[in-house]
Amino acid sequence: MSNLLSYFKSSIGKKQIVAVTGLMLILFIVGHLAGNLIFYLGPEAFNKYAKKLSDLRPGFYVVEFGLLVVFVVHMTLTASIVLENIKSRTVNYNVKKSSNQRSLSTRLMPFTGTILIAFVVWHLLDFTFTDKHGDASVLQDGMSYGLYGVVYNAFTDPIHSGLYIIAMFSLGFHLNHGIQSFAQTFGFSSPTYTPLIKNISQWTAIVITLSFSSIPVYVLIQFLSS
Ligand code: HEM
């Protein structure tokens, strides 16, 4: 038991837990993206998918609670590592890498992380804890389109869409650093693996960012040209 406690408190233990919880969050994001892309198949398909998910409740609440725990653990331990690094840097100030040795994604980590926390809270209020059959779900023809209508209406506002796209780019930068950090934590860095991992992380980040962002862009184009 005391071994387990010292693992959680150790720097390597924290880094490994942050890496594993980060990987779990990436898996959620990939699954969520796949579900979101059903939006392109129209209201019927998208609402059917949302209903299938909600029909999995109450069992699904366990998964959702698990996701919340993973998110909170990831955030808290990351904050703890950052604080430890700041403390150790004030002692070993000559060890700190100059900022141009660190990639843009790395330098942006505190900002992208904060933006993502704010985004998730806003996003849940936006689409999860909302009336999916009220006025917000009604499209131009005066009919209610359920969750599809809620999402569509939200993205007809360029500011709303713009803020989502900023959050998606933050996610991309965060993932790019996160995947490389995961590999480093588990010792995959070598002259052969490092460039490959860099490539994988960059392409994963680009594909995820552009795929999520395509939804608000698609709605805006459709709305403005209708
Ligand atoms: C254009 C981008 C996105 C769209 C259109 C979108 C859409 C949605 C919708 C419609 C729901 C509600 C599902 C329901 O209540 O049935 C939802 C839930 C959620 N989304 Fe997103 N999402 C997007 C991006 C993201 C991103 C990038 C994240 C994470 C960083 C995220 C995290 C979540 C979470 C945690 C939930 C709650 C899941 C649950 O209740 O089980 N979403 N999203």
Q: How do you describe this structure in short?
A:
The chain is mostly helical. It has one domain (2-93, 100-224): 3 helical TM bundles of succinate and fumarate reductases (Up-down Bundle).
Protein model, in words:
- This protein has 226 residues and is an all-alpha fold.
- The protein has a single domain (2-93, 100-224), classed as 3 helical TM bundles of succinate and fumarate reductases (Up-down Bundle).
- It is built from 8 helices and no strands.
- The longest helix is centred in the N-terminal third of the chain and has 33 residues, at 59-91.
- The radius of gyration is 20 Å and the shape is globular.
- The structure holds protoporphyrin IX containing FE.
- Protoporphyrin IX containing FE binds next to α2, α3, α5, α6 and α7.
Using brief descriptors, characterize the structure shown.
226 residues; 3 helical TM bundles of succinate and fumarate reductases; globular
Biggest sheet details = none
| CATH level 4 superfamily | Fumarate reductase/succinate dehydrogenase, transmembrane subunit
User: Can you count the beta strands?
Assistant: 0
- What is the overall shape? globular
* Structural Rg: 20 Å
CATH fold label = 3 helical TM bundles of succinate and fumarate reductases
Mean pLDDT score, rounded? Answer: 93
Written as H for each helix and E for each strand, in order along the chain, the element string is HHHHHHHH
Give the DSSP E fraction (strand runs of 2 or more residues).
under 5%
Bound molecules: protoporphyrin IX containing FE
What's the total helix number? 8
The secondary structure category is mainly alpha
Low-confidence segments: none
Distance between the termini: 63 Å
Question: Which CATH first-tier class would you pick?
Answer: Mainly Alpha
Number of domains: 1
Percent helix among the residues? Answer: over 70%
Query: What's the CATH architecture name?
Result: Up-down Bundle
